[in-house]
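quick one, 404 residues, struct below
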Amino acid sequence: MKQFRKTKLNQRGFGHVEAVIAILVIAGIAAVGARVLFASHAQTPDPVIAYQTVSATPLSESVNTANVYSGAVSTISPNNLLATSPRYSTNGQYIAWEGSANPDSTNTGQIGIYNTQTNTQKVISLPTGTSFANSFSDLQWYPSNTKLAFVAATEPTGSFAYQLETINTDGTGATVVPNVNAGNESTGSLISSLAVTGDGQYIVYSNGSAVYSVMPGSQPVLMTKGECSNIRTVPGTSDTVVYYCGKNHSNGYTQTIYRGTTASKKSSEKIAAIFTYTATKTTKVGTTYQFINSFMPSSDGSTLAIDNQVTTVTAACTANTNISIGTLPINSTGTLKTLYTGPSTSVSNCRGGGGGDINDVVWSPSGSSIAYLGANSSLNVLSSLNSTAVSKQLVAGNAGDLSW
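---
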């Protein structure tokens, strides 16, 4: 039986659409376009954003890069592969992504790693069998830049079972993290988000009902109960992460952003709420509400870039929505500062929503710009991060899951 994973296709104004696709092989390339794209990396700051494109009909996925100065766009994954979820290493030298062959023909999962300095690519083959799965997601780098963590899936009894795993970038050391109940497809409680702490000692993850931290080989420690997502490591810290948790009410919802540290004692002593939305979700014409789509800490660990969706009900089951980009201090309870509000888009308003664990918004490494996904999944860059922030479109549509 073939293994499968779910890939999130972000379509602004229509919610996050999940397409189920098969996982298989990445082959190595050295694209000529990529050579041109990365040539200015050492000469100018923050030149290249990595992102994925996904098309459901027919199924097509690729990892691409866009140069913020020249506007040049290049595909750095082969045309015959399904490649998604690019992630820059912490030193900015590598881009790792998940991939599979198209069409699906074997059950061998692999990870591609692209070297931005040499414009070369290598492939990590994942061990087969139930002890180490063929299907994987939520790829995250360790601070050493030589190790990756991710969620794997196996199908031992006809229903997908999930595991938290790690592997070295040379393909050795493939390990299932023990004591972690990653859940299965039948019972739910699947790991939906994870991050590796700055000291590389802990993995922080959410299983849909709570956030835990685990030092591989030890028992997980509860940090926060709730439907939580968007777990992000705070740069410059050894043990701090941020994440948000949502709670639905009879007529609305609450979203709270938490700053937490890993600890072997009760997490309540280590968790701080730094921002909370409480909103009434209704279909009453004229009502305006908002929710958090995604956020990302700056490279100095001081500030969150937050992607909000602001919605105004205009008629029964119809609303106008605007993407709003703002910033929020991480180390204290602060006020959200709005930098930019995008154009209005008409959407269906009969169902609630909000959030999704893909990178809708990312900081540039220097902290001088913010990239975000706008209407129609366009890729945009925000510069002059003040009240006169200017937005520049790099890709017109079909972009998703950013890394910078």
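Residues 1-44, 129-135, 351-357 have pLDDT under 50 and may be disordered.
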